Amino acid sequence: MELDPDLIEQFSNLMVSTRPISAEELARFDENAPLRQRNEIDHPSYKTIPKFFEAPLPPGDTIRQNLRKEAHSLYLQQKSQELLDSNELDELWSMLLKHVTQMTATGQQLIDFDAYLQLQGAVNAKIRNYLTARLFGTLLVLSTHLDGMVDIVSVFNYIMRKVWLKQARIGLSFYDEMGRGYLRESDMESYIIDLIPNMAQIRDCMQPSFQSFYVCTVLKRFFFFLDAQHRGRICIRAMLESGMVTDLLDLREEADPEDPQDKNCFSMPAVLAVYRNYLSLDKDHNGMLSQKELADYGSGTLTTIFLERVFEECRTYQGEMDYKTYLDFDMAMNNRRSPQALQYLFRILDVDHKGYLTVQTLHFFFKGIQEAFQSHNEVPVNFEDINNEIFDMVKPNDPCKITLQDLIKSGKAETVVSILIEFHKFWAYETREENPQNV
């Protein structure tokens, strides 16, 4: 068999280490020593701080890259085999029922630690790995029973939830080929596309031509809320902790007729509502939104000054906004209490890019509200009064500057931002005593 000359050349240029290794170091190497102990030889700080950074492999080092991908794939397959399947979960529940210590008057089935230890011995090793003493102790702390017992339902639900989270993490990690713990936009896009055939609530009601818009909408939501720093990647752990993956995977189950589908932001009704709103704003049907078209968004009372700033700060194409840019705008406007939306809106309000708002900044945007008063033939409100109210609400660390952190800390950020950019919201705030339901 003739070997590929390119492969031979790659092996000859393969660098197993980023620095030359002496014969003495090679002789001292112990493959059975713990990793931290081996690292301590390189630097004494590793005794207290584990090594947490590995330099990325060079782009041309295809051998080690493929080796790492293969090792990562095998690791995930091994972890998949450790998960409990539906039959094993049924077996766990059956064994829990057999080891009930006491039943309460309300029908709760409780288990004490002695019975829990017996349960550990009665199940197979795979299930036993989940029935740890730590789990019992954790549930005991949370238990309302004072006799050292926990509800078997809480044991089962905890394990089932843990299995589900591990399964979700493994599913996401398969798209993280290099095992770095995060997904880039292209990785996440592939994950969503591959997931659609298994999403019962999506696959049967989605036209093929709409798939790209559905994927774009879902992808943008993940990155808007989980990549506020615009690094182009999302930590897998952050995705799981956010609950957004749960919402997405819930769509694999058949829809409950009694449960409104639009409650799930990834459902077809919810995504279609966003897309149809975009189409309704696109009056000239060119697939893009001009500033004039975006002025009809929501209540239709966003100030001209604010809209001008949106088009200055956001990515546009020949002065018009595409669907991707609109999604960020829409999510910011509909989630004004969230830190991510406030960061988006603060960037628009921060005209001078100084990282804070001043009296001059507030006055600049309030001119848009005053213009709306004039168009409605109403008597304009005195800016000094509004300025004082805003600073009183926010209570910034610096009495002359309002930072994003000041806004978030105050708990009044949604109100402050809204009364500066939208006449409808400002009027609701001004008449809050007469019409509190409008605030």
UniProtKB/TrEMBL annotation:
Q: Where is the signal peptide?
A: none
Pfam families according to UniProt: EF-hand_13
Q: Which InterPro entries match?
A: EF-hand-dom_pair, EF-hand_13, EF_Hand_1_Ca_BS, EF_hand_dom, PPP2R3C
Domain of life where this protein originates: Eukaryota
Q: What is its main location?
A: cytoplasm
> Which species is this record about?
Drosophila pseudoobscura pseudoobscura
Q: Which GO terms describe its cellular component?
A: centrosome; cytoplasm; nucleus; spindle
**PANTHER family listed in its UniProt record:** SERINE/THREONINE-PROTEIN PHOSPHATASE 2A REGULATORY SUBUNIT B'' SUBUNIT GAMMA, SERINE_THREONINE-PROTEIN PHOSPHATASE 2A REGULATORY SUBUNIT B'' SUBUNIT GAMMA
- Which Gene Ontology biological process is one annotated for this entry? microtubule cytoskeleton organization
Q: In its UniProt entry, what is this protein called?
A: Serine/threonine-protein phosphatase 2A regulatory subunit B'' subunit gamma
The compartments listed are: Cytoplasm; Nucleus
One GO molecular function term of this record is: calcium ion binding
Question: Where is the EF-hand domain positioned along the sequence?
Answer: 337-372
Q: Which PROSITE patterns match?
A: EF_HAND_1, EF_HAND_2
Record key words, sorted: Calcium, Cytoplasm, Metal-binding, Nucleus, Repeat
